[in-house]
Amino acid sequence: MLSIMIAPLVWLDIGEQYFPSDMYEQITNTHPEINFTSIENPPVPLTLHNLDVLNEYGNDGMNVYLTSNIDVTQGPAWLDGVVPDSTGKTKNAVSCAVIINDHGSGDVDVFYMYFYAYNLGNTVFFHELGDHIGDWEHNMISFKDGEPQAIWFSQHANGQAFTYKVLEKEGLRPITYSAVGSHANYAVAGRHDHAIPDLNLPVGFLLDFTSQGQLWDPTLSTYFYNYQPETASFESINESPLGAMHFKGRWGDQRYPDSDPRQPPPFFGFRKFVSGPTGPWDKQLNRTNVCPETGIPCIIRDTLGP
């Protein structure tokens, strides 16, 4: 399968504390809430197969938050994720979803969705900002007639695109660098300021750091799906659980109010804890270009750099 032969390999940063995590572990350590109130009598037990039953609550599921059972400021172990072993596998933890969108006429987009239980935000003037429970990041490779053309690297609210041929590779497999804590994806190691969308300079106030720490091969523990754009639905490959893909809610806690003792005072309107992310369904899986449509011009770089 092309989705495996040319799948990205991920370098996790040498200082990483929050490693790729098992998707089901996220369910077993959380409970569904709407507006900080637990859903009464939710389906039990929730699994990756039936998680989308929560779409029956709260605005088709969009107001549902998988909320931590234990105060996250106490550092529960499940947030740490799983360190890949010597083969690059997250043992006993399925931390990736590979989603294939075949547009026809030889055009195929393959998404590599990476899951982490915790996102550690950036520190700005000694203030840690943007932490959240649950973290979905991704690469997307666009193929034409079986040949990889370009790759998207998700980075916070936007990202970057590069031609396949210019990327660092291990054999045929492109390398992506996961930023320490935030898990944003970059094509090169080093320092990356992400204050300006689609431009990552080595200096600035909002810095991500990437390096060759632990190598992770997401394809060794992953679920596989086909995406059906006409119905915005997923088709399971090898009995991969569909409920997790169709779930419309958030994979973590709702942003704590300022009155919550866990939430430090805002720093110029920014907060330490923000809401958890939506899942893969919300990552523009039916794009017309390698970049998602965000209003920012899609630049596909043919040289490595910021």
TrEMBL record:
Pfam family, any one: Vps62
InterPro entries membership: Vps62 (IPR009291)
Protein name, UniProt field: Vacuolar protein sorting-associated protein 62
